[in-house]
Specification:
The protein is mainly alpha-helical. It is about 70% helix and about 0% strand. It is globular, with a radius of gyration of 15 Å.
Length: about 80
């Protein structure tokens, strides 16, 4: 966990938020792509390999942001 924390500490927050806004939400019309993939996941229709890859590709910035914010709030001794 300390290696992950060290990697995340080297990344500024702004590029992660920028990636979430662009890559995580693109294409914006008719709905954000990650939202479409999340609804497919919940409904059980996320089965095609391209859709699964697309879900991870568009979800990766959100995962990095969640890890950075989640690990950044803990104090290290």
């Amino acid at each position: 966990m300390t290696k992950l924390r060290a990697i995340l500490d080297r990344i500024d927050l702004f590029p992660i938020i920028f990636a979430c806004a662009l890559l995580g939400l693109a294409p914006f019309v008719p709905e954000p792509h990650i939202w479409e993939k999340l609804t497919m996941l919940v409904s059980g229709t996320l089965v095609k390999p391209i859709d699964i890859f697309d879900f991870f590709f568009h979800g990766l910035p959100w995962l990095v942001l969640a890890l950075k914010l989640g690990l950044g709030t803990r104090k290290t001794d």
